[in-house]
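just leaving the lab so this will be short. below you get a single protein, a line of residues and a line of whole numbers that encode the local backbone shape. id like you to explain what the token line says about the fold, in plain words if possible. thanks a lot i owe you, the record is right below:

…
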Amino acid sequence: MLAMIIRSSFTADGVNFFTPNDFSQQLAYMRHRAGRVIDAHVHNPVMREVHYTLEVLFIRKGRLRVDFYDKEQNYLESRELAEGDTILLVEGGHGFEVIEEVEMIEVKQGPYAGDADKTRFEGSAPMLGKLIGKGQKG
């Protein structure tokens, strides 16, 4: 699995986790009716071991192409994200091209390890007009 894309049109009642319990980054969609009470709580300290950084991007505005690569840096496919979409980048490599001015929020595990956090490489994605699988789940 390279990524999970949650389109802005997704809706469901209650709490819906997209990720399995063993992912180091958890992603869920929640929808509750007015008047629902969520119990006050604190999170307990639990030791966790994180080997890879998983990133979540919330697209607030614009359009963004995401190019996916395998672990050997070979291009696989591209998907387009639009306003309101969310993506969890799970495995392999990725690159981006801004199609329309974009505003996004990124969430990932910390603390940030600087240059040790990533290996940069020359991407080989196709031209924008050859977008593969436009609008499909990744």
Q: What stands out?
A: Residues 129-138 have pLDDT under 50 and may be disordered. The CA atoms of residues 3 and 129 lie 22 Å apart. The beta strands are 3-6, 14-17, 28-31, 55-69, 75-82, 86-89, 93-108. The chain has no helices and seven strands.
